[in-house]
Amino acid sequence: MAPEPRTPSPPPCTLRAVRPADAEAVLAAFTANPDMARQGEVGTLDQARTYVEWLLGEKRRAVAVAGPDDTMIGLVAVSIEEDNKVGWFFYWMHTDARGRGLAARAAATVADRALSRSDQGGWGLDRLELGHRANNPASGAVARAAGFVHAGTERQKFLIDGERHDVLTYGRLRTDPPPATPHLPRG
Ligand SMILES: CC(C)(COP(=O)(O)OP(=O)(O)OC[C@H]1O[C@@H](n2cnc3c(N)ncnc32)[C@H](O)[C@@H]1OP(=O)(O)O)[C@@H](O)C(=O)NCCC(=O)NCCS
């Protein structure tokens, strides 16, 4: 009997550096879900270009999650404070690409790299930190999947639409155990 034809697996999503040509994809992500509003002010292509320029600034490392056709569908980035070897870690995914474990895998890959020594191809940071609103549990799940440890609660830090929101803070040290979350390949 002839073997069943196998469905080819889809080409993988990859990680690559953000580039100026990603502005259109950034605009698409920011306009696809109102929950992106807290990530920056991007409602036009010009604003998307400014946001990408900011990502590409000297004190930042910005990694795109790219779909099989190389379109940017997500971001993991770190704002670096050189003197302290500390990085502020942040991420987002286009709403259509969420819920597939990509943010968790991308964040784990970038965090591992950021905390690796420079002579091993890493960015040589000693500590990463992030914060997310308490009513954004998906962000906390991504942070934990990337090896971050809950550090505390900044009570009622933000005022959004007349309501105060707690922010949960997380940190990961170079010496913390790396997570078991699988990496995404480089494109
Ligand atoms: C936060 C965000 C990046 C998560 O993206 P995602 O693609 O859904 O994440 P993943 O598919 O990798 O899922 C990661 C984890 O979140 C969990 N998760 C996803 N949506 C969730 C929800 N609404 N409530 C609780 N957990 C959720 C998943 O179950 C998974 O956890 P697990 O590994 O324990 O199963 C995405 O929701 C986003 O871009 N939000 C807007 C921007 C933002 O809030 N960024 C973070 C700012 S601090």
Automatic annotation (TrEMBL):
The keyword Transferase applies. It holds the Pfam family Acetyltransf_3. GO terms for molecular function: protein N-terminal-serine acetyltransferase activity; protein-N-terminal-alanine acetyltransferase activity. PROSITE patterns: GNAT. Residues 13-175 form the N-acetyltransferase domain. Keywords: Transferase. It comes from the Bacteria. GO terms for cellular component: cytoplasm. This is Acetyltransferase. It comes from Brachybacterium muris UCD-AY4.
